[in-house]
Specification:
Helices cover 26% and strands 21% of the residues. By secondary structure, the protein is an alpha+beta fold. Helix 3 (112-119) packs across helix 4. The longest helix has 25 residues, at 127-151.
Length: 159
């Protein structure tokens, strides 16, 4: 959609919101100016639903109001009669606190706890993550001991 603006007999075309157009104004000494294209919803409010139905409804572009086609919101909440569905309630998140109705389809992989050691914050580690971390530290210490012991001088045995 485009907005056409007439300046000094010339039509300027705004192809998107905030577009900058170079125009000249003034009749005696034309001055170069920059025109900032308006938001399409402000220039043509009858082409859009109020507040885009606030994400709580669907815009019906075929709605007829007083014999004129004028978009209107059809709210998901049928008791909401506001223009932009702004009176609809937003879910409060209770469904997140009670997971009894949800299915547990997640299968925990044996190595997920190991990946958590390298990716997650230690505060989020599970018992298995701590076990993996302890095992890796133990292996590291054994390897370090083996390397260091190979560098120690050997004792001479007395016969």
């Amino acid at each position: 959609m485009q907005v056409q603006i007439r300046i000094r007999g010339e039509w300027q075309i705004c192809e998107f919101d905030g577009q900058l157009l170079d125009v000249t104004v003034g009749s005696l000494a034309p001055l170069p100016q920059t025109l900032v294209c308006p938001r399409l919803t402000q220039a043509c409010p009858d082409l859009f639903c109020p507040f885009n139905c606030a994400g709580r409804g669907v815009c019906n572009y075929d709605n007829i109001f007083n014999g004129t086609v004028r978009p209107a919101c059809e709210c998901f909440d049928t008791s909401d009669t506001s223009l932009g569905c702004s009176d609809s309630q937003i879910p409060d998140g209770d469904f997140l606190r009670d997971a009894s109705g949800l299915f547990d389809n997640l299968e925990e992989n044996f190595l997920d706890a190991l990946v958590a050691v390298f990716v997650d914050d230690p505060e989020l580690w599970t018992t298995a993550s701590w076990a993996w971390a302890a095992g890796m530290i133990t292996i590291l210490l054994v390897l370090l001991l083996c390397i260091c012991s190979s560098c120690w001088p050997k004792r001479k045995r007395k016969i």
